[in-house]
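Please fill in the sequence for the structure shown.

STRUCTURE ENCODING:
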């Protein structure tokens, strides 16, 4: 991280952000490997294992319409969302705290990072709730436009079709932007004395001037995730063509490793984007205030020096 701090990081390109993530990993390999195995690996496994149960049940339910099928589907979805939510927040808290500790030259260890997570979790959870509200509104509007688009196909109404298509494209851009703002707000919630709606507003301010960079990273992440999911469904989950247990096991293990690496780089990129945005806006990165913020998570109260006010 010091390497990034010593140069003008506001002009970093996406590939340079990925390289910087790898450099930080190399600086403390043991700590990051343990965090990856404890938090990011379960998160990645949950994402891929979900494909094994979700689609077969979803395809089976309309045919059978049995209550126990619906119950099984709901239970699996509930546990999937709970695991995904918990490990996503835990992974974010751990990686952001570790990156910030490295930046402020604080001692970094697996145990010290884990001990701070309970204090960070509440802040991330509140920020997650506000981001979820935005996503709920977005999904409602998206569903409305999707229904209009499908209806226009049935009615052969070219005018409504074009309008609906551009609305869907515009909504996809909004989805990418809100996702970028959400992830940056998570970093803000850890590194600054704000969380919830205030963190979302702060994230929006920081993204000004760097929207293309942030959204490009989000799109690349989503595309690679979709590709991993597609390969997993085609080659690992038994279908019309059975590639054999050995091949499916090896391919499944390979995809898990790829997704783990992708999730680690994604979480690391969030931290680096935060510093890129700070540098772009010519905001001084106060190591003293950041050091105090991190000490608060370790249980030692130190008056925060940041000028950003707490807010919801």
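FILLED IN BY: designer on duty
SEQUENCE:
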């Amino acid at each position: 991280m010091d390497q990034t701090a010593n140069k003008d990081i506001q002009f970093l390109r996406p590939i340079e952000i990925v390289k910087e993530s790898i450099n930080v990993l190399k600086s403390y390999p043991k700590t990051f490997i343990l965090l990856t195995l404890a938090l990011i690996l379960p998160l990645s496994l949950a994402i891929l294992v979900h494909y094994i149960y979700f689609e077969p049940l979803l395809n089976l339910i309309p045919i059978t319409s049995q209550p126990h099928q619906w119950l099984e589907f709901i239970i699996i979805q509930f546990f999937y969302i709970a695991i995904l939510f918990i490990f996503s927040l835990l992974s974010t808290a751990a990686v952001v705290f570790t990156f910030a500790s490295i930046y402020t030259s604080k001692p970094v260890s697996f145990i010290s990072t884990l001990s701070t997570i309970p204090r960070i979790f509440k802040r991330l959870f509140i920020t997650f709730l506000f981001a979820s509200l935005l996503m709920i509104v977005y999904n409602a509007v998206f569903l409305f436009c999707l229904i209009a688009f499908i209806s226009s196909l049935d009615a052969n109404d070219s005018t409504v079709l074009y309008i609906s298509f551009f609305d869907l494209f515009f909504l996809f851009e909004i989805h990418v932007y809100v996702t970028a703002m959400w992830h940056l707000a998570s970093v803000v919630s850890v590194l600054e004395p704000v969380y919830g709606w205030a963190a979302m507003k702060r994230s929006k301010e920081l993204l000004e001037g760097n929207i293309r960079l942030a959204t490009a990273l989000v799109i690349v992440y989503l595309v690679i995730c979709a590709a991993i999911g597609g390969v997993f469904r085609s080659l690992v989950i038994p279908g019309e063509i059975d590639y054999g247990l050995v091949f499916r096991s090896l391919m499944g293990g390979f995809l898990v490793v790829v997704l783990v690496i992708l999730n680690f780089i994604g979480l690391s990129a969030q931290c680096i984007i935060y510093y890129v945005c700070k540098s772009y806006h010519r905001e001084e990165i106060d190591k003293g205030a950041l050091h105090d913020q991190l000490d608060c998570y370790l249980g030692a109260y130190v008056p925060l020096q940041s000028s950003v006010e707490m807010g919801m």
